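Good morning N.,

You mentioned wanting to compare the apo and holo forms, so I went ahead and generated the holo version with histidyl-adenosine monophosphate. This is what I fed in:
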Amino acid sequence: MASFQTVKGFRDFFPQECALRNYITETWRSVARRYGFVEYEAPLLEETNLYRKKSGDEITNQLFCFRDKAEREISLRPEVTPSLARMVAEKQRDFKKPIKWFQIGPCFRYEVPQKGRGREFIQFNADILGDSSSAPSAELIALAIDVLREFGICTPEDFIIRLSNREIWNIFLADKKIAEEHTTTFLSIIDKIERASAEETEKKLSVIGLTLAEVRDFMASTNENHPAFAELRENLTARGLWKFVEIDATIVRGLAYYTGVVFEVFDKKHGLRALAGGGSYDKLCALISDGTVDLPAAGFAMGDVVLGILLEQTPSAQMKLTSAYLAASSIDAFVVVADEAQRPHALAAIQALRAAGIRADYSFGPQKVGKQFQAAEDRKARFAIVFGAEYPEVVIKNLLARSQSAVPVDGLVAEVQKLLAEPAIGPLIA
Ligand code: HAM
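and this is what came out, ligand included:
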C-alpha cells in the first residue's frame, strides 16, 4: 500500500471514475444548453462571511474554513448559490432578465463521509434570476426531470420530485399565532421530522407551543389541490411532467435562504439520499448586496455522487453508461508496424490520421505482430492498420467485423474516415 492516502472524504479519479465524471458533466451541460441556460463559474474560495447567516447553520457547521497568510477568513465553497447571488448583484445591469445560468464544478463540505456523501463532490447548478412568477420554478423542475431522463432514468417509478412551498408553513404558523421569530426553529424541526423520533419532535414542538398531532394533521391535508401549487401544476401538466411530482410538506430544505417553492429529487427504487434540491430564494441577492439589488431567484443543484450510484444500479441507464466508458478508453485505429523498416512511414500516417480527428495509437518500439494485435484488441480499436513489406500498400483490418481491405497509403485517411462513418458491427456492439 502507498504510504500516502487521499485526505478523508476526497476522491481519486482513475480513468473509469474520470469517464463517469465526464459523462455526467457533459450530459448536464448539454441538457442545460438545450433549455437555453448559459454557463458561468464562481471562485472555489470565498470569504467565510459569505456563507454565515446566508446558508444557515447546517452548512456553516460543515465549512472547510481557514485563515490565509493575511489572516483573512476563507472557505472552500460548500455550494455556489451565495457566490451566484454576489456575482449577479454586482453586475446585474449588464444582463438581460430573466438570467438563466448554469454552473458545474466541485464543492466541499466537512461532512461525515458515508454512502452518497463525501467531502468533495461535483454540483450542477441551474438558476433563474429576475422573474418573480412561478414559471422559473416550473422550468427548473422540468430541467431536473429531463436531465435524469437523458441519463436513462426515465419514469415516475424511477424517481420523484418532492415539492412543497415554505409559504404554506408561514400561513400555518400565522394561523396558530406562533411568533415569527420561531419560524427558523420550526422549519428545522419539519426538515428532520422523518428522521427524528416522535417523542423528540413532540418535545421540540412544545417549546414553541405546537403539538405533533396538529402538525401531522396539517401535513396530511396538504395536497396537490392546495392553491400554492396551482400555477406550477398547470405549467408542468401542460408539459406532461406533473406525473413526476409529489406534494410533500416535510420538504422545507436545510438551507436558510429559501422563501417559497422548495423541492428535492429522490430515486424510488434504491432508497438513496437526495439526487438534487432547490427552490426559490427571493431575498438572497438583497441580503448579500445589503439591500442594493433586489432580484427574485430560483434554482437547484444536483450532485454527482448519488447520481453516479444510481446510474450504476439502473438497468435502463447502463447502456449509455457503458458506451461512455467505452468511448473514454477506446481508440479508432491501432497502427501495427509489422516491418520495422516502415516505422517512419507508419509514424507519418499516424500523424495524418490524428490530424484528421481519428483516434490512433501504436507500440513505441519493435514488438511481435501478435502482441501488437493484442494491444489493438486491449485498446478496443475498431481497426488495425498494418504497415508491412507491401508498403506503400497498407492493410486495414476491421477488428469487429473480422474483415480486411488493402489500400495505398495515400488513400488511408479517407478510407478510415469512410469506414468509421459506417455503423460498427461486431461482438462489442452485440
Ligand atoms: P443542497 O441540497 O445542499 O442544495 O445540495 C444539492 C445536491 O448536492 C444534493 O441533493 C446532493 O446531490 C449534492 N450534495 C450536497 N452535499 C453533498 C455531499 N456532502 N456529498 C455528495 N453530494 C452532496 C444546494 O447546494 C443549493 N445551493 C442548491 C441551489 C441552487 N438552490 C438554489 N440554487
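Residues 79, 81, 109, 111, 117-118, 121, 123, 125, 127, 255, 274-278, 281, 299-303, 305-306 surround histidyl-adenosine monophosphate (CB under 6 Å).

Happy to go through it together on a call whenever suits you.

Best,
F.
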